[in-house]
């Protein structure tokens, strides 16, 4: 199968012809966050084939952005559900701020642990 629109150009360096290959980068206006970078590390260390495939197809950034957005949304949903279940206000009411902070940190840590197992490390 020939693709007449696909041409490789070369430039000479010394005695060698070097192909002018450029990876096309899509410009995303989204800053990859904590969960996207955790997913990237997981792919590099444990899912090398998927990492290479996404890189070669130029879909790695898109994948990391999707995972980061999904994980953030899921963490927020779980935090709201756990806070409601445990009768903890999502916003501080001014009474016992240290106790409220402790409870919310506990809820957030549990929510993140769930998301890490469901989305990031699968």
Describe it:
The chain has 122 residues and is mostly helical. It has one domain (10-120). Helices cover 59% and strands 7% of the residues. The protein contains 4 helices and 2 strands. The protein has a two-stranded antiparallel sheet with strand order 1-2. It is elongated, with a radius of gyration of 23 Å. The model has no long low-confidence stretch (mean pLDDT 90).
Structural class: mainly alpha
Mean pLDDT: 90
Q: Major β-sheet, in short?
A: 2 strands, antiparallel
Parts with pLDDT < 50 across at least 5 consecutive residues: none
* Total beta-strand segments: 2
Helix content: 55-70%
Features:
single chain, two-stranded antiparallel ribbon, 4 helices, 59% helix, elongated
Topology:
Elements: E1 10-13, E2 16-19, H1 34-46, H2 48-56, H3 60-85, H4 97-120
Antiparallel strand pairs: 1-2
Helix pairs in contact: 1-2, 1-3, 3-4
Provide a quick synopsis of the model.
This protein is mainly alpha-helical and 122 residues long.
